[in-house]
């Protein structure tokens, strides 16, 4: 029979379905047998986390999380991961690290309450909590829904850590987390709740040693400070240092205190570092660090402001090089929690974290982006757009500087290796260890869910809002 080109049109021929073109769908890298060998990956995307807004002129745009999630779903990467829309962290859980008066203030502060705090002369009373907790300045504004936003991204990192603790996943991803600057009682650098510290505290319930790695262009000061006296958490941060660059800490001489002496590693870099130097330095430092410290779990902060052409950053990294660092850590086959962080060019951040999701899931994706509602953000639709050389920043890191830096770090690792053996310290009671408050919150949440069901709303398997359907 002669085949004709004629076929009956179907509903799925409509343009609405074009965003799932097969050419853009993810393909398993290693063939069919790979299923047995690929590690189990869990992906956390809090519902609506991308809808919050720091303010029109603020460089931090939570919307980049919506863009990332749409690309991840558009590529079909959710087929290779367990996808979760986690519950919010409770005030009690957030207080595991942050001081109670800070959490209390954070949960109450609103744009209106902040305005009322400022007197008619636009000066603050000396005892104002704005001074104490640093919420309300240009960096850390009190925007609408602020506490909910914090609860969402922190809840996702906690859920991811718990999933790793019970061995139900090998790799857990939360791109909405990674807010590494927040301090115990202070907001800092666009960060209010330090989800990384909370997640590490959770991991320490089970794991004797946690390695924290930070490839954001800013120093991971909040996490370093939280564990500066601990030998159970080794922190390593690669960042720009000098020229009054935020936050101003992260010199190579900051190595830890007391029991934690030598357990903080800092890799201070200058403007314009390129792919080759960065990736080589990263591997030359992280390989020996992992071999020396022998962590039982790794937390990787993937701030994307270290990419070339970032609005606040000044490195020249490509998405491929950033992703190569992620792939390098993955191949150590240790339980791995991956979080986001900075990143101030939304089209670059979302491409980068989508690519890194594919690296972690062990699948290859097309270099052409899938169609989404947000094609306008990606002219050319390339996953790896070429960085325009004329806009790149000259590399101020000489080969000799980087070699000298590497030698210093290796020397620190040598001393660390000779330190008294790392003792298993007291582990907090019960891995699940939920306080009464958390139990109550979970019950409340369950009740809310039942109510939503009664009202006719159900969640689909995926977390993106387009998967919410009505009965
Ligand atoms: Zn940053």
From TrEMBL:
InterPro entries: HDAC_I/II, HDACs, His_deacetylse_dom, His_deacetylse_dom_sf, Ureohydrolase_dom_sf. A divalent metal cation binds at residues 216, 218, 305. Substrate binds at residues 139, 189, 344. Pfam families: Hist_deacetyl. Residues 58-359 form the Histone deacetylase domain. Residues 438-450 have a biased composition (Acidic residues). GO terms for biological process: epigenetic regulation of gene expression. Keywords: Chromatin regulator, Hydrolase, Metal-binding, Nucleus, Transcription, Transcription regulation. Residues 438-457 are annotated as: Disordered. GO terms for molecular function: histone deacetylase activity, hydrolytic mechanism; metal ion binding. Its main location: nucleus. GO terms for cellular component: Rpd3L-Expanded complex; Set3 complex. It is an enzyme of class 3 (hydrolase). The active site is at residue 181. Its EC number is 3.5.1.98. Coiled coil: none annotated. It is found in: Nucleus. It catalyses: N(6)-acetyl-L-lysyl-[histone] + H2O = L-lysyl-[histone] + acetate. Belongs to the histone deacetylase family. HD Type 1 subfamily. This is Histone deacetylase. It comes from Naganishia liquefaciens.
């Amino acid at each position: 029979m002669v085949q004709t080109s004629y076929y009956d049109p179907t509903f799925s021929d409509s343009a609405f379905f074009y965003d799932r073109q097969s050419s853009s769908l993810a393909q398993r890298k290693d063939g069919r047998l790979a299923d047995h060998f690929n590690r189990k990956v869990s992906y956390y995307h809090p519902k609506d986390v991308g809808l919050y807004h720091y303010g029109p002129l603020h460089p931090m745009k939570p919307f980049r999380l919506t863009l990332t999630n749409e690309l991840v779903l558009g590529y079909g990467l959710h087929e290779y991961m367990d996808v979760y829309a986690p519950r919010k962290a409770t005030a009690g859980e957030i207080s595991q690290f942050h001081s109670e008066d800070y959490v209390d203030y954070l949960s109450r502060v609103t744009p209106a309450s902040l305005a009322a705090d400022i007197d008619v002369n636009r000066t603050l009373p000396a005892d104002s909590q704005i001074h104490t907790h640093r919420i309300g300045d240009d960096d850390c504004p009190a925007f609408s829904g602020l506490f909910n936003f914090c609860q969402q991204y922190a809840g996702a990192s906690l859920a991811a850590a718990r999933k790793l603790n019970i061995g139900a996943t090998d790799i857990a991803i939360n791109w909405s987390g990674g807010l590494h600057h927040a301090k115990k009682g202070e907001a800092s650098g666009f960060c209010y709740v330090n989800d990384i510290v909370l997640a590490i505290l959770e991991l320490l319930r089970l794991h004797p040693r946690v390695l924290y790695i930070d490839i954001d262009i800013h120093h991971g000061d909040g996490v370093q400070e939280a564990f500066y006296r601990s030998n159970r958490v080794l922190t390593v941060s690669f960042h720009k240092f000098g020229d009054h660059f935020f936050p101003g800490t992260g010199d190579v001489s900051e190595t830890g205190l007391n029991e934690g002496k030598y357990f903080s590693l800092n890799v201070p870099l200058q403007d314009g570092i390129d792919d080759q130097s960065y990736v080589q330095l990263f591997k030359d430092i992280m390989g020996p660090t992992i071999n020396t410290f022998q962590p039982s779990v790794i937390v990787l902060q993937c701030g994307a402001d270290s990419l070339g052409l970032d609005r606040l950053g000044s490195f020249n990294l490509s998405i491929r090089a950033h992703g190569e660092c992620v792939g390098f850590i993955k191949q150590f086959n240790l339980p791995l929690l991956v979080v986001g962080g900075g990143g101030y060019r939304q089209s670059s951040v979302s491409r980068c974290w989508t690519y890194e999701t594919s690296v972690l899931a062990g699948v290859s994706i097309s270099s052409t982006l899938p169609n989404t509602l947000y094609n306008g953000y990606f002219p050319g639709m390339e996953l790896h757009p070429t960085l325009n050389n004329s806009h790149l920043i000259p590399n101020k890191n000489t080969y000799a500087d980087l070699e000298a830096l590497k030698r210093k770090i290796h020397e620190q690792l040598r001393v660390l290796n000779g330190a008294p053996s790392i003792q298993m310290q007291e582990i907090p009671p019960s891995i699940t260890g939920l306080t009464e408050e958390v139990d109550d919150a979970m019950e409340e949440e369950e009740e809310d869910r039942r109510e939503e069901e009664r009202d006719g709303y159900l969640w689909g398997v995926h977390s993106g809002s387009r998967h919410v359907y009505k009965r």
